[in-house]
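Reader question, answered in our methods column.
A reader sent in the components of a multi-part assembly and asked whether the whole thing could be modeled at once rather than chain by chain. We filled in our standard form and ran it. Here is what they sent:
COMPLEX SIZE: two components
ENTRIES:
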Amino acid sequence: MNNYLDDFPLLKNKNIAYLDSGATSQKPQSVLDAISEFYKTHNANPHRGAYELSMEATGVYEEARQKIAKFINARHPEEVIYTKNATEAINLVAYSYGIENLKPGDEIVLSIMEHHSNLVPWQKVAKVTGATLKYMYINDEYEIPDSEIETKITSKTKIVGITHISNVLGTINNIEKIIKHAHKNGSVVLVDGAQSAPHRRIDVQKMDCDFFVFSGHKMLSPLGIGILYGKREILNNMTPFLMGGDMIEYVHEQETTFAPLPNKFEAGTQNVEGAIGLAAAIDYINKIGFEEIEEIEKELTDYAVEKLSKLEFVKMYVTPNKANHSGVISFNIEGVHPHDVASILDNFSVCVRSRKSLCTTTYEIYEY
Amino acid sequence: MDDLSDVYNDLIMEHSMNSYNKKNLNNADFCEIGHNPNCGDEITLELKLNNGIIEDMAFSGHGCAISQASTSIMIDTLKGKTVEEARKIIETFIGMIKREIADEAELEKLEDAIAFKNVSNMPARVKCALLAWHTLEGILEKSNS
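And here is the structure of the entire assembly that came back:
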């Protein structure tokens, strides 16, 4: 196996076991170089100036979009919208699709294991539109049973929000079934891919989701860049989210017409550095290949689960169905608060996520 | 941090695992919830005043060892003090945790609460140590008005 650790300057320089990539990943040298190279050679405001440098900046920005589209197998590059992160991408859909289309009597269905980013925006949509918010609950194996999918998603459902891989439980959800069932009932589906995009090959056409969101910083890119994928026909019918420069066609004193996709959703000067960093991260991931990534992940996860399960005082919250589990391992130590556990592990240079995490709803069920 | 036992010392462990101050008061004058949304720690602090003197205090709730012990030791330290004395001690404690006060004579006034001095070396845990003290600060402000 290659020693990938050497590609990451921070990990090479600090003697730590960094186990918090689910929160944010460290960045390889090639990503840092790509960002630095952009500022040294191409920096200008894209889509603005009629001079060569600005055209260059536009070029690298749009090339990055094409690379990202290919990475998730989007049919058209303009189906890829740059955002700040997955949270902003979900808010875009909540405001520009949810609030515009839902009405009293309609239902929004989420899973109880959603990250706050795929939960709080939908509470807002429900409050504004009068729609009802419903949850699919999990069973003793930390999975959403088929019966929950079939009973919660009905003809009243207009939007389903589902995490592809849970950041708390590591459960890989059966999104194919959820999407099929939702479409049969006339609902659109938003898949939160923040934890899956770095770990599994994503094919949005095969998946047939209507929206797919992810954050660059959890997949080796800089902070502040995220992606909303949406089916072209749906995005075309949505109203813009943020208003301003670069997203317009004609501006009059009282009225404005908007630019076509993808610019319609990209108001203001964009994070070109982030887009380029994300493209470089995709190059790095592709060079390794998802087959190897999955193999290493499986090996490490099996090892950790095996070792942890031998410790009587550790309680793990992991599905026993290995095929449905990714690299996230949640655990509790009997009688010791997670915050204290994290401090003690930190003393041994092990970085883990503690606290009630970002999914209070999941924890309410398990009374952490 | 060089030695974990500087923070998780006997006094702190004792107070965090089995505190006699973790109970309810029958006749509290003030009851205030302190919450740290980042980690989910939540305590309810009850206080009984008598002629400007803190006659009794108790707490309930859940949290890490540092937040629980800090609450319990704060109660021991401030019971029987006047509101004005308590305010000064709270100020000193916050100053110690934030590394703004290092003067030994000044810190002596904290009595057992000086046990938290090493938390000032753990920025991630400062909020845990301060939760109860900030909550009490809020109560004393209210009691004044």
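What stands out: The radius of gyration of chain A is 21 Å. Chain A has two domains: 4-27+289-366, 38-285.
Send us your own complexes using the same form.
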